[in-house]
User: Fold this.
Amino acid sequence: MAVAAAVLSLALAASTPHYTAIVGATLIDVSHAGLSASDVADSVILIADGKIVASGDRTQVHLPAHTEVIHAEGRYVIPGLIDGYGAVRTQGFADAYLYEGVTTVLVPMEPAGGDGEGESKVVAQNAGLSVLTSVPISGYSPSGGVPQTSPWLQHRLHDQRLDSAALLAAVDTAAAAGHRVVAVGLDVWPDQLDLIVAEAHRRGLAVTAQVAFTSYPYAVHAGVYAFTRNDKYSLTLSQPQDFLAYADDPRGVGGRAASRAVCGAENIDAALAAFGAQLGASHAALMPALSMEATADDVGGPNPWTLRSSAFVRAADLDDPVDPKTGARAYLVSHPDRAEMIRTCARRKQEVDRRLHASGAMYLAGSSAPSFGVMPGGGLHGELRLLQQIGLTPREALAAATANFADIFGWPDRGLLEPGRRADVVILSADPRLDIAAIDAIDRVIAAGKRVDRAGLMKTAKARH
Assistant:
């Protein structure tokens, strides 16, 4: 009997959840795109089995017996950060993200020759880091690829478009494979876009896009969830004939006239106002990847090698990194006669985003790591600083890397500190409502309910190098 009782006691203990509570911190409200401000000054976040059980005022959340308490008085808590445009190429990448409080990374997958990551490159995981993926959908190729040659006139005239059945199958395959997002490619036509968006919505997938065979205003109307890279969506502000030239040669020189119009601010005010008004009245968001040009063109981007997350990576792991010793940008060094023009263009595109935000456009944060040496983890911190520089409040910038993914992409399992979501929590020792730079002041990171050993990760990184 005694043995049976002991076995029963052990079984009951094993089935009893282990509760952890973060007590006393100010819980920062990032809901409604950062426009709400219902912070909880003396909060409790109760965690069990990797999920949030309860959150709210200390007087309203009951702590079960034997709850492990993390005292966080004088601290600030935010949801784990989400990088909407990143890569996880090595274990160092994974460790860097978690070290910097990034608990979810959305990796854009691409067929061979594309701009994103191939399946073989997503090679590392870290306990607690959630790696989600998006897959491309082309208007012509079942693999999602688009032509690497230009111009595309022959592509339009002679290649066979995917029919409705093939497009539906592509979306359904993406859903069945566990991808969270489908990325609409440059060669998708308006009628195809309508079909893709409808099917993706039915299957619970978000839709991002870079378009050329259709227009950005049409894509907003069609219900695309987010547009990536401001060097792409800003081209819609150019004259129609210039955008058509881009559509015929989107991977070559076809976009030069459109880019000149944006960079030279040539009669784009009316188009900018119209696009901003349309975005402000829609549910679509922008993911500008400001860090990409800021780093490549030395416009508001620090030398990535000065960031603490640089300890986790090697230059060979990055794409076109800046010089580790001098911070020199290779293209600017090799084209000194064009350097100031390039910087001016990058600043103009930042100004475009400033005005789109002022018109009511919502934003999502994506670092574009490892493009031009943007660091995993630290690159997202830099992206949030740049979003603040273009006019987002610190709270809006935080929302761009947290709650906006829940609201815009419809992700019910992360992005907010609410019951039922993943217990991804970052505890800060500085107030992020005053300046987004406070995200560097990380006191503790909890990913999927487990404490991240940040000191251990850094020690491993230094030993690895």
